[in-house]
Amino acid sequence: MTVTETSLPGVLIIEPRVFDDTRGWFMETYSKKKTHQIECDFVQDNHSYSAQKGTLRGIHFQHAPMAQAKLLRCARGALMDFAVDLRPDSDTFKQWVCVELSEKNKKQLFIPRGFGHAFLTLTDDTELLYKTDNYYSAEHDAAILWSDPDLNINWGTDLPILSDKDKTAPLLKDIKL
């Protein structure tokens, strides 16, 4: 596995080694030994399906003490995956990175606690799989409006397909982090 740091401290791109032959391929998607930069124990796996290209999910996060680190990969289709630094004391507060994850490139993105997460599908029938190091907690669940001008995220679209939750999420300035 190759691990590459992004411009946001702790946010990592992981590229597994893929073994191809006439039957198909094999890859190891996670190895604690090989990804020693990831210092967390995963406790939950999630699987998200989006039927339509242009579906935007996020910007989501959980408040402490139920904050979550995530290891994400696209198993079907393609998407742009976004990590947003929500740590007020960080030098990169409100900055974001974006990485294309797809079934073809097999890249993965690790997002540590303290970051918001969002993704925009680039194809119909897109599936995202991810591990978290803390359980889902409805009580601690939070979202930020996808079009928050303080974040100035370039989504590549002005008309994404959104859930009601994401359409009405508050601005970052209106949330206590």
Notes on the structure:
This protein is mostly beta strands. It has one domain (2-18, 42-174): Jelly Rolls (Sandwich), CATH 2.60.120.10. Helices cover 2% and strands 41% of the residues. It contains 1 helix and 13 strands, in the order E-E-E-E-E-E-E-E-E-E-E-E-E-H. It has one helix at residues 164-167, and strands spanning 2-5, 12-15, 18-21, 24-27, 44-50, 56-62, 70-76, 78-85, 96-102, 108-111, 115-121, 126-132, 141-143. The protein has a 6-stranded antiparallel sheet, with no helix packed on it. Strands 9-8-11-6-13 form a 5-stranded antiparallel sheet, with no helix packed on it. A hairpin with a 6-residue loop joins strand 1 (2-5) and strand 2. The longest helix is centred in the C-terminal third of the chain and has 4 residues, at 164-167.
Question: What are the SSEs and their pairings?
Answer:
Elements: E1 2-5, E2 12-15, E3 18-21, E4 24-27, E5 44-50, E6 56-62, E7 70-76, E8 78-85, E9 96-102, E10 108-111, E11 115-121, E12 126-132, E13 141-143, H1 164-167
Antiparallel strand pairs: 1-2, 2-10, 3-4, 5-12, 6-11, 6-13, 7-10, 7-12, 8-9, 8-11
The low-confidence runs, each spanning 5 or more residues with pLDDT under 50, are: none
CATH architecture: Sandwich
CATH topology: Jelly Rolls
Question: Rough shape?
Answer: globular
> Secondary-structure element order, as H and E?
EEEEEEEEEEEEEH
Radius of gyration: 16 Å
Features:
177 residues; mainly beta; Jelly Rolls; five-stranded antiparallel β-sheet; 41% strand; globular
